[in-house]
Design brief:
Radius of gyration: 26 Å
Structural class: alpha+beta
Helix content: 55-70%
Strand content: 15-25%
Distance between the termini: 30 Å
Amino acid sequence: MSLGEEQKLYIQQFKEWLNEQSILQKQIERDIEAKTELIESNEKQLELHIQRINIGIKEHNKWAEDNGIEERIELIDECSLTEEEQREIELRTFIGIYRMVQEQFNVEVRAEGHEDLIVKDLLSSKEYWINEEGISPV
């Protein structure tokens, strides 16, 4: 039994749609990777910023000592964030990435379990599972 023109067209269209979804997935993965790299860069910049501040504090304290001034300024702890503050930064970063994905791709994202996400395409109202194995229709 041979396929009719309508069936062939449907198959071709579906394959192209799957290709488009694969491209979209790769783009989202690249965006997440870029945001992760930006976070790492910001953390390094913060570390370097604190080091520069401490250099200034040391210079000030040396000046104070040389001029007979008793008051000294304490150096800033390079890890001055509490675990709770660090966790809050991580969560805010995650929420920012999450919102960026929703806005950029006009989708609604919700978590199902620990590793799976369901993405709803707001243009077509179709839903997809996203996990380590890839994307599949719900």
